[in-house]
Amino acid sequence: MTKDSIDAYDLPERVARYDADMTVMHPNRSKMVEIALEVLPFGPGEPLAAQDIGVGTGYFTARFIEAFPSASVHALDGAEAMIELARERLGRRQENVTFSVGDFRDLGRILAGQRFDVVISSYALHHLTRDEKRSVVRDAVSLLRPGGWLVNADIIVAESAHLEERIQDLRVRGIVQRAAAGDVRFADYETARRYLDEMEAAEGDQPITLKEDLLVLREAGLEDVAAFWVEYREAVTGGRKP
Length: 242
Hints:
By secondary structure, the protein is an alpha/beta fold. It is 45% helix and 21% strand.
């Protein structure tokens, strides 16, 4: 994770179209968050304390509060502009949310002394290197109460370059089809592929394989680690603090 990847999400034009882009680029986002919420072994009326790492425009936090209306959420993001959009999305529900602007890598310092029942994250941790991700997840686990859960909906990369290229091909074709020529960035296959490659480089994407992702969670101290849902280059993973 670099300053450039944080700054990329403070650009007005990127932030303004973020949710619309997610619909085109990641049509499974809603399903992934739904599954992440289903996995959590808590009742809807429990007064849970949750941490959202990389709250973005507040999509996961909003769904979390809908599922657990008595919960409170601490929402962290590196980009002030994203947090402003999250406030707009949450409206009156932001009464249950505390926002912080900060680098994920400082999670332990930012939240020192706090305790949570749940840590959630979506489309954020792939901006970290493997070692950074393990460090951040380890800090998150240290903030969890015993029996607490961490769930993450994010991007992964295939085990082989050949398979990754095939998955990327399917991905780009799907994006072009969903955009339906309504966006010049996705007007055709070549234009879309070039735009996506340049965007991911600018934003510092560093996804790891599913195998490595699950290993990171175990190394960070989680048990019952599993991939609860996988499709091509996206996965919902998580585990429980013993």
